[in-house]
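Subject: design request, 360 residues
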């Protein structure tokens, strides 16, 4: 068992995806975890899965992690601060400024509270979706404020490091502006695009490829949760959406008459601007190095993906990324393999020589 930085016990309030995953990750390190949830069913499932035990009278947790919806986060944090006067309390809500402001308005003891936010999740929620490795390599923001000392906050740092996440320090304001750009606005854009599919002809949907699936993937998220998140972070989300609307208006104006002088140049500039934006996203392991992709046609039968990956490994080529797409109406899959640029020519030739069909 890997040695833990935390002493424990750790109390986790809320046994959804994040709470259960935190419990499972800490239990894997031998930390005592106390679970609490307003839902007896969720609590029972999380306990049965080994994420921790039920609360007992006399529990004295070192750290409390509140994993509840944003609209009740401040209320539950205030209750935990009052009920456990010796514990440090954090929450994992995806907005940080609103809970802190509400706690201050309530007169809560924020000298023992600091908000945090793991940027990790899945499309599915609930305790059944919990995973001990959910946070490995993922950013976990600690939203510092001037009401808590560094010494008080070390338990939260230890929690993040124990779970294998990457600690990132930001102010609550900077955090909320950042997640508006990289999470909350993409959710809105994905949702609005997916709404266009509601009344689309089936013949059109049958043509859908991976691009549409990528754009609309997060549109399957829980509407109730997102109403809370967007309401709590409305100002920065609105600011970005207004600028996005201006971008759309420019694009639409250029398409009104594509043959007009300057119209094609305007479209090209907008597309090039998208290229520039994508190029700034960190690559694998946070590095900026770019990869090259080739697409291999794979029969949709058991063991074919494993055989492809084994042969790539035998050639001494590392797969930097992998995406799978099914070919509509055919028992065929398309495996998009990303590798280092210097490896793509040799890999293409070697795979073709072994009978693999290269689509691109």
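Subject: RE: design request

Done. Sequence follows.
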């Amino acid at each position: 068992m890997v040695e833990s930085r935390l002493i424990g016990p750790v109390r986790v309030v809320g046994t959804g995806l994040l709470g259960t995953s935190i419990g499972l990750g800490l239990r894997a390190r031998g930390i005592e975890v106390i679970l609490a949830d307003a839902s007896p069913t969720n609590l029972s499932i999380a306990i049965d899965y080994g994420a921790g035990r039920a609360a007992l009278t006399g529990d004295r947790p070192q750290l409390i992690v509140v994993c509840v919806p944003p609209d009740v986060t401040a209320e539950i944090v205030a209750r935990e601060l009052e009920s456990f006067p010796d514990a440090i309390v954090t929450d994992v809500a995806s907005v940080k400024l609103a809970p802190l402001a509400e706690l201050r308005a309530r007169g809560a003891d924020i000298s023992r509270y600091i908000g945090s936010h793991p940027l990790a999740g899945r499309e599915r929620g609930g305790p059944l979706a919990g995973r001990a490795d959910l946070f490995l390599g993922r950013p976990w923001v600690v939203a510092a404020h001037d009401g808590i000392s560094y010494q008080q906050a070390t338990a939260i740092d230890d929690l993040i490091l124990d779970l294998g996440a990457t600690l990132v320090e930001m102010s609550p304001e900077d955090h909320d502006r950042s997640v508006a750009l990289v999470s909350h606005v993409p959710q809105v854009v994905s949702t609005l695009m997916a709404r266009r599919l509601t009344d689309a002809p089936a013949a059109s949907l049958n043509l859908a490829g991976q691009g549409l699936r990528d754009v609309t993937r997060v549109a399957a998220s829980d509407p109730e949760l997102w109403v809370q998140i967007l309401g709590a972070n409305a100002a920065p989300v609105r600011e970005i959406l207004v600028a996005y609307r201006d971008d759309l208006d420019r694009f639409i104006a250029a398409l009104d008459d594509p043959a007009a002088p300057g119209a094609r140049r305007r479209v090209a500039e907008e597309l090039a601007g998208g290229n520039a934006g994508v190029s700034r996203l960190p690559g694998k392991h946070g590095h900026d190095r770019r990869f090259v992709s080739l697409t291999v046609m794979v029969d949709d039968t058991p063991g074919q993906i494993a055989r492809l990956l084994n042969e790539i490994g035998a050639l001494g080529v590392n797969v930097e990324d992998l995406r799978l797409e099914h070919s509509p109406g055919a028992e065929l899959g398309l495996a998009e393999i990303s590798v280092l640029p210097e490896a793509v020519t040799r890999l293409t030739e070697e795979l073709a020589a072994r009978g693999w069909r290269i689509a691109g």
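Residues 135 and 151 are 24 Å apart (CA to CA).
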